[in-house]
Every structure is written in C-alpha cells, then in structure tokens.
Input
Amino acid sequence: MEVVYVGNEKTPVVMIDDVLSSVSSLCASAEREACFELDERFAYPGHRAPLPESYSACIKPLLDELLASVFKVPNSHRSRSVPPDSLTQVSK
Output
C-alpha cells in the first residue's frame, strides 16, 4: 500500500497492490454466479455486477479502517451496518 498526496490541497490517494493472493477464485465466481447488467447511471461503458458477499465481507472491514485512518474520519462518522427494520423512512 502507498499513499500519495496530490494537488494543491494534498488530497490523499491510496494505492493498494496485491489485495488478493490470487484472483482466479474471484474470476471463477464471477463466471459462475454473477449477473452482469448495463448500468445507465454511470458513464462506464461495460457491464457491471456486484462483488460476491463473501469477498465484500472480508475486504470491507480492512478498507474501512485503512480509509478512515488515511482520511482522518472520526469514529462518529464511520460506516456501520444497520438492520433494514431499524432504518427510518428517510434512511431506506
């Protein structure tokens, strides 16, 4: 991992190499299970699919902590999961 600071505001850019020791299982999962669709909301020209839940569950806590540290996010503003039935109408 490397953090470089760019621009007059010295905005941090986090570069992470080799997050996975092997991407073959992630690729195989995408070939077997992913439902790729066009996403009209963004300019990206390709098809998209969500990451497998097991991958997200493993990587998200690590990235949350890393990004919160780099961008100096206070604990009170860090992301957290809330069960859907606990959300207010505005949050849904």
